[in-house]
Every structure is written in structure tokens, then in C-alpha cells.
Design goal:
CATH architecture: 3-Layer(aba) Sandwich
Largest sheet: 4 strands, mixed
Helix content: 40-55%
Strand order of the largest sheet: 1-2-4-3
Strand content: 15-25%
Length: 162
């Protein structure tokens, strides 16, 4: 089972059902990916905060809808984190996957633009960010096809249709 930590910006309170939806999307995506244990953090923020992160980490000075920061991805000059031996097998520890940051104002705007529910857009952004944490990308047509196909599979499995 995936351990999900959801942090909300105080100005963008989601309903309990929307928070539960985030967890459901992540649990279904993990299940379909065959991930038995893992930890992921989801931060729900405003455009200003996500723009700052986008500028700092990607060099793009504008807001975006979702950012993912995988624990396993090391930046230049960063060292791998090692844990002391505890006598437990490696598979006893959950995989530390990373952080997903979602702009709630951008999700609301995109839901309106794409003419579907906020919940559908939120689910899409959550699964999109999660798949990036697992190494999926969309730099090439082939990668995009594979990633977007998996996204739709997850969303349809939990009945989030366009």
C-alpha cells in the first residue's frame, strides 16, 4: 500500500471527498504499476508558489499545473542517501518516491478550459505527477503514448471520465 501525505495551502481547501480522491488515484496507479509499498507527498499550492518552484528547478518563470520531484533522481553534485543496516530486508522499507506539487488555481482553470470536472483534472494531474516519479516521461512520441495511455487506464479504473 502507498503511504500518501497530502499538504494543503490554507487558501485552497479541498473537500474531504477531493482529498480522498487524490489517495484513491495514487493507490490505483500504484496497484496497476505493481508497487506494493511506497511513500509519496502531494502539495496543493497556488500559482505563485508553483511558479517560484518552476523557475528555481526548471528555469521557467511561469506557473505550471504539476511538478514532480523524484527522490531517486539526483541532481548534479548530489550524493545518494544511504540508510544504516537494521537487519531488515530492503523490501521491508517502502520506496521513497518523492513529491508531487499541484497548482489548484491552474487545475480549476484547466478543468473549465477542457470542459470537464475539477475532480477529473485533479485526478489527471495527480496520476501524471505520480507516473513521472516512477520514471515515465513524454519527451518522445513513444514515451508520450505510453505515459498517457497509463494515465487514462488509471483514471478510467476509478471512473474519472472526460
Amino acid at each position: 500500500m502507498l503511504d500518501v501525505d497530502i499538504m494543503e495551502d490554507e487558501s485552497f481547501q479541498l473537500t474531504p471527498e477531493q482529498i480522498e480522491l487524490i489517495d484513491r488515484v495514487l493507490q490505483k496507479a500504484a496497484e496497476l504499476e505493481g508497487l506494493k509499498k511506497g511513500e509519496v507527498s502531494v502539495s496543493l499550492v497556488g500559482d505563485e508558489e508553483i511558479q517560484q518552484l518552476n523557475k528555481e528547478y526548471r528555469g521557467i518563470n511561469r506557473p505550471t499545473d504539476v511538478l514532480s520531484f523524484a527522490i531517486e533522481e539526483m541532481g548534479e553534485g548530489e550524493d545518494m542517501i544511504y540508510f544504516e543496516e537494521s537487519g531488515q530486508e530492503a523490501e521491508d522499507y517502502p520506496a521513497l518516491l518523492g513529491d508531487i506539487i499541484i497548482s489548484i488555481p491552474r487545475a480549476m482553470k484547466q478543468a473549465e478550459e477542457y470542459n470537464h470536472s475539477f475532480e477529473r483534472e485533479l485526478g489527471f494531474l495527480v496520476v501524471h505527477g505520480f507516473l513521472h516519479l516512477l520514471g515515465y516521461d513524454h519527451q518522445t512520441e513513444e514515451e508520450e503514448k505510453k505515459m498517457f495511455s497509463r494515465q487514462e487506464e488509471v483514471l478510467q479504473a476509478i471512473h474519472l471520465f472526460r
